[in-house]
Amino acid sequence: MSVERTFKKLVSGVILDLDGTLLNTDGIVSEILKVFLVKYGKQWDGREAPHIVGKTPTEAAAAVVEDYGLPLSRDEFLSQFYPMLSDQWRNIKALPGANRLINHLSGHGVPMALASNSSKSNIEAKIFHHAGWKESFSAIVGGDEVKAGKPSPEIFLEAAKRLNMDPSSFLVIEDSIPGVTAGKDAGMAVVAVPSLAKQSHLYTSADEVINSLLDLQLEKWGLPAFQDRIEGTLPLEPWYIGGPVIKGFGRGSKVLGIPTANLSPQGYSAILSEHPAGVYFGWAGLSGRGVYKMVMSIGWNPFFNNTEKTVEPWLLHDFNEDFYGEELHLVVVGYIRPEANFSSLEALIAKIHEDRKIAERALELPQYLKYKDDPYLKSSLHQQN
Ligand code: ADP
Ligand code: RBF
Ligand code: MG
């Protein structure tokens, strides 16, 4: 019996994919596709998503034309769609954890390359809007610089060559299945960060599948560990979400003994899609009542197998009554853990109570406590009268 098998391969360099791994390109693609399809009398419904993630631009174009039965050739589609898309590149957001990862690795002098099926000029145009990215990569390899894009390993092998390092000394981080295949065929370690919901089980050849870049543990690969978690939490650039409290599935209090105030999905689908499923915490302002600590879950609640992504804050206060319809404003200041599945209800409940303790304690730290005074939390109190 060899124990070595349980050890992960150690690496000294990192090769990153761009679209879907560092950048939320899919979000912009679907926004533009919505507008585009209307011109052809079609309605966007996301059916193309599984066919375009990780594909070359021409493959993706062919998939859209076929999926929606557009009266266009692949090239006609591309020549109309691409200008609309490139016009929006400055609006593509970095995915959560992308800036943290790039700054950390470049700060530690870890050799880094960017390898994407996009053309080199498109890669440069996209990253131009993100301060510090271009300088962090010792090599940038585009799909137009090799004979075949991913799933061929060529892009990754070319990146290794340009860094003058052996392919086996790299960790590849990828969101797509063709990208994972390419990385493995290049002889590299591969961590998958699937960009499509509920697809993790398909990434069988990856060495590890994580929920988001926020969960990456670099020390597993022999790279310098992140040092920015405090008392079990990861500080985030605060983000804001609010609206009237609506009825949820009616099982929070009844089944778990943990009430969660569900927010109306109206108007927050974009912000929700930006944030990985998981447990977060921060402050909650309830119109006319006050400001409270909160710990919340974002996701599909795998234990209950929901089909819609929800935001469900548990306000850490005894109300002794419902507050449906009341205006709830949240400032989310930190991240605790990825969404998980549990083998029993008791295990889920125990974990949520552990999350509560972590959030309760962390919110006393000055860097989180200061957001208790954020005007957004009280902004709807004034509107009351
Ligand atoms: P639902 O499935 O409708 O969200 P829950 O059983 O999860 O039902 O209960 C949530 C409701 O309970 C909230 O919408 C709110 O009106 C009320 N509530 C009472 N106390 C709390 C609390 N501390 N945190 C969140 N919601 C609470
Ligand atoms: N549901 C899960 O299936 N997995 C989780 O990891 C999970 N974590 C949660 C963490 C917190 C802090 C809260 C408040 C809820 C969490 N839930 C999780 C959601 C729980 O399933 C949900 O509140 C119920 O489905 C009630 O709607
Ligand atoms: Mg609820």
UniProtKB/TrEMBL annotation:
Transcription as UniProt keyword: no
Keywords per UniProt: ATP-binding, Flavoprotein, FMN, Nucleotide-binding, Transferase
Molecular function via GO: ATP binding; FMN adenylyltransferase activity; magnesium ion binding; riboflavin kinase activity
Pathway field: Cofactor biosynthesis; FMN biosynthesis; FMN from riboflavin (ATP route): step 1/1
Riboflavin kinase domain sequence ranges: 234-364
Enzyme Commission (EC) number: 2.7.1.26
GO biological process, one term: FMN biosynthetic process
Keyword ATP-binding: yes
Cited Pfam families: Flavokinase, HAD_2
Record InterPro entries: HAD-like_sf, HAD-SF_hydro_IA, HAD_2, HAD_sf, PGP-like_dom2, Riboflavin_kinase, Riboflavin_kinase_bac/euk, Riboflavin_kinase_dom_sf
Superkingdom as given in the UniProt entry: Eukaryota
PANTHER family (UniProt xref): RIBOFLAVIN KINASE, RIBOFLAVIN KINASE/FMN ADENYLYLTRANSFERASE
Name of this chain's protein: riboflavin kinase
Source organism of this protein record: Solanum lycopersicum
